[in-house]
Amino acid sequence: MIPEYAQSQEPDLAAEVADLRARLAEAEDTLEAIRSGEVDALLVSGAQGEQVFTLQGAETPYRFLVEAMNEGAMQVIPDGTIVYANARFAGFVGMPLQQVVTSSWRKYFPVSDHPRFEALLAANKLSGGRGEFNLQAADGVLRPVLLSFAPMSAAEVQGVSVIVTDLAEMKETALALKQTVADLEAFSYSISHDMRTPLRAMQGFSSMLLQSCADRLTQEELDYLRRIVASSSRLDQLIRDVLRYSRTARAELVLSKVDVTRLTRQIIESYPTLVEPRAEIVLAGDIPAVMGHEASLSQCISNLLDNGVKFMAPDRLPRIIVSAKTENGQVRVLFADNGIGIEPRHQQRIFKIFERVHPVDKYGGTGIGLSIVKKTIERMGGQVGVESELGKGSTFWIQLPAAKD
Fold first, then answer.
1. Could you tell me how far CA 278 lies from the centroid of its own chain?
2. How much is the pLDDT for 348?
3. What is the domain-level CATH number for residue 351?
4. Is residue 313, in this structure, part of any structural domain at all?
5. Residue 103 belongs to a domain with what CATH number?
6. Residues 154 and 268 in one domain
7. Quick check: 333 and 369 in contact, CB under 8 A?
8. In this structure, are 158 and 9 located in the same domain?
9. Tens digits of per-residue pLDDT, 63-109?
């Protein structure tokens, strides 16, 4: 037998449950309509009673973009209520989208992160900002994220839009990409190295034929052999340059103080092509010490001096003036030559690998020397450049941080 008080309560309870179900269904329909763009308003109950928040009409065209992007997104009003979120954010926190909207952002971040989050919210009502946080999913799992804040307007209330980028996913992608690049570099290095073995055999046998059979060959046959030797030598040089470029890209560079004046003098004295009567190299004063990797910097200076001597009119003695200037803690070393010069439209191309602007049969080279200079200097935290006028010489420069005393 059901007690009388229970019988009197049963109809009221049933009615209340039915009313709650109806209200829940209505709320879900409303939220779905807002998310899909059918309506642009949201009713939120707070300490000041119920308020209607209307998204600015300009936002509507971007809603589909926000829904489709890989980042999470939410819009937060001053009391902490999330008035909009996309499906990606809901997926991050492992909650149904309908439950995320109208909840507080505090639910999705550890208590230890709340003060920083609130500070960024307050600071970024008028300007953007960003910070790294831990996003806490419904199962308690923490996900490292980068939050980007930007001011937004909902009706007459100022709020903040927050873009959520998954740092763990980004780091995994970057790590996989780095590994792929490393594998490709190792493969290219191995292939380039292995190619030299059959090439050296070709050079050796061709040279032997030239020496032992020259008197039994026709001029045409001798010409063929000389072309084989020349072509194999050039290919060998190309492979060596590729290996050098690969080492430049892969090697660890530990920076220290480098005496550039001493290093430049040593290079000049070591290369026969850089001393009189074949060339004139002038050091216009001492060059300040820089922070760099001495062996790599030696390669760069050698390449620049070699280029200055090589690209020269045949009736002219190569002359290179090496000077320096210091500004804002940076040392710029200049190599001014009296060579054939470079047209303005080619001056950026020449630093790219295999790019050439002068005929190979006249000036030789493989088109890698300046690429090595650029790659090396940039890895040391510096810059490279050139100023040139066709027929009036070129001034190449490298720039590195000045060494601290």
1. 43
2. 78
3. 3.30.565.10
4. yes
5. 3.30.450.20
6. no
7. no
8. yes
9. 555 666 778 999 888 889 998 899 999 999 999 999 999 899 999 99
Segment (H or E) for 153 = strand 142-154
Whether 213 is covered by a domain: the verdict is no
Decide: 39 and 13 in contact? Cβ < 8 Å.
Answer: no
Note down the domain range covering 86: 4-165
Extract the tokens encoding 104: 């507080």
Q: What is the dihedral of CA 273, 276, 277, 279, to 10 degrees?
A: 50
- Out of 165, 191, 206, a domain closes at 165
Domains in the chain, number: 2
pLDDT digits (tens, 9 = 90+) for 162-194: 989 888 877 777 788 878 777 776 776 677 667
Q: Please say which residue of 165, 187, 210 terminates a domain.
A: 165
Q: What is the pLDDT of residues 301-332, one digit of tens each?
A: 988 998 888 888 878 889 999 999 999 999 99
For the record, the structure tokens of 55 come out as 């998204």
Scored b (16 or more CB within 10 A) or e, 15-50 reads eeeeeeeeeeeeeeebbeebbeeeebebebeeeeee
Measured distance CA(230)–CA(106) in Å, rounded: 73
> Beta 280-283 vs 319-327: how paired, if at all?
parallel
Name the residue with higher pLDDT: 44 or 107. 107
Q: How far apart are CA 247 and CA 269, in angstroms?
A: 25
Helices (H), 259-379: 260-270, 294-310, 360-363, 369-379
